[in-house]
Each structure stands twice: as structure tokens, then as C-alpha cells.
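::Amino acid chain::
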Amino acid sequence: MTTTFTVPLEPSGPGGGSPAPDTAAPAISWQGVRTIAVLELRQRIRSTRWRVALAVWFALVGLVSVLIGGAFASLGGDPKWAFGLVLMFVLGLGLVVAPTLASTAINGDRNAGTLAILQVTLLSPADIAVGKLLAGWAAALAFLAVSLPFLIWSALLGGTTVGGFSLSLTVLALMLGVVCAIGLGFSALTARTAGSSVLTYIAVASLTVLTPILFVLTFPAVTTTEQVVVYGATQEPTAGDDSYECTNFTAEREVSHTERTWWLLAINPFVILADTGAQPGLDPEDSGPFEAIRAATNEMRNGPPEVVQECWWESQAPPTFDDGAPIWPWGLGANLLLGAAGLAVAIRRLKVPYRTLPGGTRVA
């Protein structure tokens, strides 16, 4: 069965010239976006590789989930770690798959000679770009939907709240959309599909791997020797001698002002996801990976403490955990801006007529 779509052609003015001003296409229309998205999705659904990819994804996520759940059950570990690790694995796998869903959407059609057919219709550049983005994002969400049974199972195993589970899933879906938008932008910028795919993977690697590396490398730049208040003893206690008492005194210490560079961690997708799923007020050492990542990031955001603690041998009151303001809205907002920039580049590059074209580019 063949499905056909009616795409409005560009009307010509008197004598076959340029279109009349009153029939100009709008900047974006729901009908145009829907037409492009449905066309893209139908092509994916008919592909055998698409079904195989979903089956392999389901098997891989299921295997990892069972292994993680079995390991914690046999070792007697905290089940909260199960949901955190499975969700992190799904995010990591999604960041590997998502670039392939949109990074060839524009230059692939241009090389095949089918993009120009869409550009001469009343479909606006925004219709084409947004439609392709929604199709790629929907394909990425299909992979996420396949993972839902294992995510729900691990969430129930770890006692995750409904609100925390829903928020984590929403943020994960938005991050996949951001990657698709970045890939779409590179697809419009480069003439070759291999180039756009590589650039998208580099962008994803920069957000996930390069940001913590840069954060560590900036430590010498933000570390200085300052006069600080220290809580400790002027002399080290000897074995069997408890006559030393801890007091506050002023001394020179190396201080790292990580409050200046903590934003490098805040834009990391894994830190964003951990901050959404962390339960406030829990001891990071006795909780899951989300709480540990959130506590470490908050410590970096707060910078050096007002009083440097050096009296480790003295018994102290149980520590309190101040979670502070959520980090994920800032990190997610920065990533959404990157995705919006990718979409804006794609819309701009789809405008016709072209001013310049890369050498060897096929128009139609």
C-alpha cells in the first residue's frame, strides 16, 4: 500500500515569475511540520535496520538491568544504586544512538537530490527543519520507550518516588532532543554525512567527557595560597596522648575556588540527570549514585569552606547535608540553548536561493 501526501507547490506570479506577495508561505505551519515528520518517520519504520536496532537496544538494556539487579541482590548492596546505574546506562546508550538519527537528515537528502524538491514548495525552511527534528526526536524516544519496562522495574527495586522518576525521564527525553537538534545543525552545515556525524559525536563527547576533564585541568588556575581560618591542632597528637585540643587559628593554606568553574560540571548530561533523580537530605555515602554526584557537584559550587577542617581525630556531631538549590535547571537550560542554536543554523541553511554552495554539492 502506497501512502501519498499533498505538498503545496510554490505558486508563480504573472508570466511564471516570482510568487505573489499575498501567497507567500508562513514562517512555520503545523501542516508543513507534520508532513515532513510523517514522511521521515514512515521511511524509518519501513527500514529493517530500524527494527533490528530496537531489538538490539531492548536486549542490551535488559541484559544490563538484570546483571545490575542480580549483582546488588547477591552482594546485598543498596538497591537505590540499581535505578541510578540503569538510568545512566540508558542515557549513555542514548547519547551514542541519538546522533545517528538527525546528523544526516539534511545533507543526506541534499546528496540524494530530494531536498530541493521540498524547498521549491510552500514548505518554509522552518517547516523542513522542525519536521526533521521532531522525526529524529520521536525515533530517539522510541528507544527510550523500549527501555521503560527495565527502568520501571529498577525504580521499584530502589524505592524511587513517582515524582523523581517522572522528572528524570523527562530530562532524559529532553537531552536526547538536544542531541538531535545539534546533529541537525551540523547536518545543515556540512556537505558530507560522515562529517556531520563525526562533528555531532565530538559535541556529545565534549559535553560528557571533556567537561569534567577541563574542570580538573582548571584546578591549578583557581588554586591560590591564602590566609584562612583552620579548625585543628597546632601540633599533631601522638599515640596514647589526647592532651591536644582542636581550636580555630589562622594559617596559610592552598584554597581551590571551584565556584568559578563548577559550571563545567553543571552542563554535563550525567550531572543534570543525577541532580533530577537525587533524593534530598540523604547521606551520599549510603545512597545511590545520584546523591553522590549531586553532593560532589554542590561542594564544587559552594567553593572552599569558611573554616578548613583539619581535626579529623576528634569525635564530631553527625554531618548535615545541605543540598542547596537544584543544579539541573541551569544545566538543562544551557543544553537547550545549544539545541536551539543547532535548529536555528539548520533553518538558516535551508533558505533558498543559496548564496554559496560547497564544491561538489548536489542540489537536485
The chain has a mean pLDDT of 81.
